[in-house]
Amino acid sequence: MKAEEAKKIADQALQNLTDALKNGKSERITQYLAMLAKFHRYSFGNVLLILSQNPNATHVAGFGTWKQMGRFVKKGEKGIVIIAPMSIRPKNDKPEGEEQSDRDKPILRFRGVHVFDVAQTDGEPLPEPSRVSGDPQQHLNRIKEQVAERGITLDYDDVPPGADGVSRGGRISIRAGLEPANEFSVTVHELAHELLHRGDQRPASRTVRETEAEAVAFVVCHAIGLETGSAASDYIQLYDGKAETLAESLDRIQHVAADIIKAVQGSEEQVSAV
User: Fold this and answer.
1) Which of these, 274, 250, 256, 226, lies nearest to 15 by C-alpha position?
2) d(CA 101, CA 178)
3) Proportion of the chain above pLDDT 70, given as a percent
4) Rounded to an integer, what is the distance from CA 66 to the centroid of its chain?
5) CA-CA-CA-CA torsion for 238, 244, 245, 246, nearest 10 degrees?
6) What is the DSSP string of the chain?
7) Spatial CA neighbour of 249 closest among 214, 211, 223, 222
8) What whole-number distance in Å separates Cα of residue 250 and Cα of residue 271?
9) C-alpha separations of 16 from 25, 53, 239 in Å
10) What's the CA gap between 96 and 253, in Å, rounded?
11) pLDDT tens for residues 89-132?
């Protein structure tokens, strides 16, 4: 495939993605965001407690919260202990209207409470963002070859909880067991991080970085015929990205996407990475 052909494919796909972002959040991502709002943001100490007791935990919540979401803790499951604050108000024997002293003010104490990971529950399925589907065929092996040819290690180890992949600078880790289409998309996404975000031109904003990487993945998946649906726009909007964010990075996205397209489709000439 020649550079002009790859550029044309990238241009059309990026226009489709721009239109999707302008249309706003899909119903699926709206439901997903509403679900996330039900999960507490845990302190660093509680995160360590959760991971020390259940390293594979992804979404944790208390018994009542799971019940609100139509899920129930399985019989016999052992809760994950975290530390929760509680306010104790001392008994007030002063006459009404008399000023309270510091000793009469609420006292902050801490106690252990139990939460449960989603894997410890049954019930209504949780909403998820859309995912790429279809059959990448030989392109999955080709993208892996491209990663290796660029001197980047690809493995399936030590992926952070809740993530499908991670770029570490010279190393990409992908969660084992992903469907082929999703594995292809995640690999391209992390490769885009490696090519775009490991040098002096690395954007400071995470929103920009995730928008660029997912846009590259969208373009390449589109080029090989995978069904992308709202997966890319959903992902970008999870990081507060929008059409304007995408527009500011079009040149960078287009260059890297076209380069990867030519590589996985069988390139005649390789363009240097950004």
Assistant:
1) 250
2) 60
3) 90
4) 22
5) 90
6) --HHHHHHHHHHHHHHHHHHHHT---HHHHHHHHHHTTS----HHHHHHHHHH-TT--SEE-HHHHHHTTEEEPTTPPPEEEEEEEEEPPP--SPTTSPPPGGGS-EEEEEEEEEEEGGGEEESPPP-----BS--TTHHHHHHHHHHHTT-EEE---PPTT-SEEE-SSEEEE-TT--HHHHHHHHHHHHHHHHHSSSTT--S-HHHHHHHHHHHHHHHHHHTT-B-TTHHHHHHHHTT--HHHHHHTHHHHHHHHHHHHHHHH--SSPPPP-
7) 211
8) 17
9) 15, 44, 19
10) 68
11) 766 656 565 565 555 677 778 889 999 999 999 998 888 888 99
pLDDT in tens, 230-268: 999 999 998 999 999 999 999 999 999 999 998 898 744
Residue 272 near residue 21, CB atoms below 8 Å = no
Domain chopping of the chain, boundaries:
3-26+130-265, 35-123
Amino acid symbol at 273 = A
Query: Structure tokens of 49?
Result: 């407690």
The token pair at 126 is: 């949780």
At which residue do the structure tokens 């992390």 appear?
190
Q: Which two tokens stand for residue 205?
A: 């904003």
Residue 67: CB atoms within 10 Å: 14
The first and second tokens of residue 58, run together, are 């992804």
